[in-house]
Amino acid sequence: MSAATVTQQQLERQVGEFQNLQKEYSKAVASRSTLEAQLKENEMVKKEFDNIKDDATVYKLIGPVLVKQDRPEAAANVNKRIEYITGEIKRLETQIKSFEEKQEQKKMEIVRLQTAFEQMKQQ
How far is Cα 93 from Cα 83, in angstroms, rounded to an integer? Predict the structure, then answer.
């Protein structure tokens, strides 16, 4: 096997790995967007809870049925969801940053291999 063939195979493998990284990155970004939308929704619900009286009747939608729920319990559930979603967003942001760094490393490796391959073809 010639050095050019080996370099070409390495290049193809690196490009495949880069494409997989891009897919994972896209999934993480989409997940973060979904979580951010859920966070905004829950923050709006929290603001509504702040505006209603403590003895107000609160209902929770479970399937097609509205079920009466205690206001403090409902507010606590919303706060827990906000806390959980915020943690997940932070986790995804760390993951996204890691993917960005890995992609940059792969790009540099691909450029290095492409340059080496082109030099071998010219010889």
Answer: 15
Strand partners, 60: 67
The per-residue b/e assignment along 68-106, b for 16 or more CB within 10 angstroms, e otherwise, is eeeeeebbeebeebbeebeebbeebeebbeebeeebeeb
User: What pTM does this model have?
Assistant: 0.81
How does residue 4 score in pLDDT terms, banded at 50, 70 and 90? confident
Whole-number Å distance between alpha carbons of 68 and 57: 7
Give the span between the Cα atoms of 21 and 25, in whole angstroms: 6
